[in-house]
Write a structure and sequence with these properties.
about 325 residues; about 25% helix; 6-stranded parallel β-sheet
Length: about 325
């Protein structure tokens, strides 16, 4: 049986800040049965995730050995891909059966035929999300935190940042975060348990702001911003500090990326900077569940999110995310 299938496609490679007109809602048809020759699954997408990294894939990437751009609608009418939660409607793969709930890489469309189900994970616990895995790997595996250390998180109210802060508090660290509004700063301190937070938009001198909030220096920096914030952070890092480079959202819409001027301090202070791609750490998923599930059940981990209804709202939701104007759902 074939059914209509709405999809979100982006028209062409994007320069500058994305606009809703850069996307188009397309309707095609799809069979609800997996072809006999396929080893894949057919899913109904229930939730699709808007993530900052998606902006990188909307520009033409020159080095395809590192990352592959989305293929724009001007070349082929294929929907955008990203993380999502879905229900299996049909399966030719031995690890999945009809009715299973899964999370992993899917497409921005109502139904998807996923030909490589190895990128999917069965959902056994409905409270666990992909950003939690990113936060876990970046904080524990890359930064090796110790009790009493000072942790700073940029874009701390984001899906990853708010969890890194809570993990750091559970470890016994002093936690400071930055965000882009007074409401978000208040929630970081009063809802998510951060020791301190500030609105970076109100600070004329980021270096001085970091000295004010972290007077003894910073041991761990979880970087979601890059650019000027990273430059200022390097000056405020302590000897043998660790930086997890998770995102560079301040750079995604620039034609010419900003330079980082203070890198010589990495040598003097013996700072370790390591990039984070969660795809390389999926083997740690069982270990992550063992850590986080007891904390969720005990109410020690809370989560704030924004949910938009309908596939047609996805482009606007992504643009709001990239502009920092995401509404808050408690």
């Amino acid at each position: 049986m074939e059914v209509s299938n709405k999809q979100v496609i982006y028209r062409d490679y994007i320069t500058g800040f994305p606009k809703e007109t850069d996307f188009v809602l397309n309707t095609t048809t799809i069979s609800l049965k997996v072809p006999d020759e396929s080893n894949g699954v057919l899913v109904k997408n229930l939730y699709l995730s808007c993530d900052p990294y998606m902006r990188i894939l909307m520009r033409k990437v020159q080095d395809n050995n590192i990352v592959t751009s989305y293929i724009p609608g001007s070349v082929t009418m294929q929907p955008i891909t990203g993380f999502g939660v879905a229900k299996v409607l049909d399966s030719k793969h031995p690890n999945f059966k009809e009715g299973d709930l899964v999370w992993g890489t899917t497409s921005w469309e109502e139904h998807s035929h996923i030909t490589n189900p190895e990128t999917l994970f069965k959902i056994e616990h409905t409270d666990v999300r992909m950003p939690g895995m990113t936060a876990y790997v970046g904080f524990y595996e890359l930064c090796s935190p110790k009790k009493g250390e000072c942790v700073f998180i940029s874009s701390a109210f984001g899906a990853v940042g708010q969890l890194v802060g809570q993990f750091a508090k559970l470890t016994g660290c002093y936690v400071v975060g930055s965000a882009g509004s007074k409401e978000k700063v208040d929630l970081l301190k009063n809802k998510l348990g951060f020791d301190a937070a500030f609105n970076y938009k109100e600070e004329q001198d980021l270096e001085e702001a970091l000295k004010r909030f972290c007077p003894d220096g910073i041991d761990i920096y979880f970087d979601n911003i890059g650019g000027k914030m990273l430059d200022a952070l390097i000056l405020n890092m302590r000897s043998r500090g660790r930086i997890a480079a998770c995102g560079m959202v301040s750079q995604y819409n620039l034609e010419e990326p900003e330079g980082v001027k203070n890198l010589i301090q990495v040598i003097f202070k013996q700072i370790r900077i390591e990039g984070l791609s969660v795809f390389n750490y999926y083997y740690l998923y069982p270990k992550f569940l063992d850590m986080i599930l007891p904390h969720i059940k005990e109410g020690k981990i809370v989560y704030l999110e924004d949910i938009n209804e309908g596939l047609e709202s996805a482009p606007a939701a992504l643009i709001k995310l990239l502009s920092g104007c995401t509404p808050l759902s408690h």
